[in-house]
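Sample entry (319 residues):
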Amino acid sequence: MKLKHSVMVSMLGRVADRFHEYHPVQDLATRLDLASQVPGMDGIEIVYPSEFEHLEKTVHLIQGSGIPISAVNLDVKGQKIWENGSFTSRNSDVRAHAIQELKIALDLAAELGTDLVTCCPLIDGHNYCFEADYFHQWQYLVQGLGDGASHRKDVRLSLEYKLNESRNFNLLSDIGRALYLCEIIGFPHVGVTLDIGHALIAKETPAESLSLAAQAGRLFYIHFNDNGRDWDWDMLPASVNFWDTLETLFYMRRLDWEGWLSYDVYARGDELVRSMGASISVVKHVEAFLDKVGMERLQTLIDQGSPSGTFDTLIQAML
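Predicted structure, serialized as tokens:
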């Protein structure tokens, strides 16, 4: 298993919550420079359209940095036009615009040297009963993503699910819906982005969700972070759910999965480059712990099905 570690450039700019601003706005050139300073970084994830105020100039800036691109992240939530939905908007012009933005993102990915666009349709869902027509919403989502993905087959589309935010109930909310959507769309180049934090707040076991996506041939991309299973806090990997992180890496290695890990980590009260560097370092240390325990030994413990024996062994290995 050979993993590549990617930094989300958007996380190296403004960091704020409802009460405080922890880091100020930074232009893209500054954030690219910060990304280049992150220890262990192999590439970056870039967001379209928010990072592309001037399309051609931004492409040249990114290419000039010499940093490989892991994925283009399509953002169809933050602008005013998406206020009432993107791919599932009641307004057909808005839906058409979302499809066109997806096509542009696919073209940008190819131009920037990656074969992947990831998209989390966070604005598509509902807040109240009797607010949305669920039949129409689902049909719009299938049609819109399918139309966009058909634009080109040499760039994969990876769909990221999340339980809630910005809607109380997101339409693409869990691994089951994400895989079902992929099957309905029917294209082999449409798959899933597994965000560890999103799996946790959906009350999933991340390693199980990963295994389901991989067995379906739909595991395209992984976001690493952590939280307390209550909200998507984008914390340092393994800082809360160490065993889930270890188990996820165990199944990735069992699958011999090779691809990008992108770090979606929110540095509140911490230095940006240090926080991202620590995220990568933590995952590499968890990998080293996996080496210490041993893949065959862990598989034997799983086969025996005795949690007491498993955790007695794991805790001893930590000493």
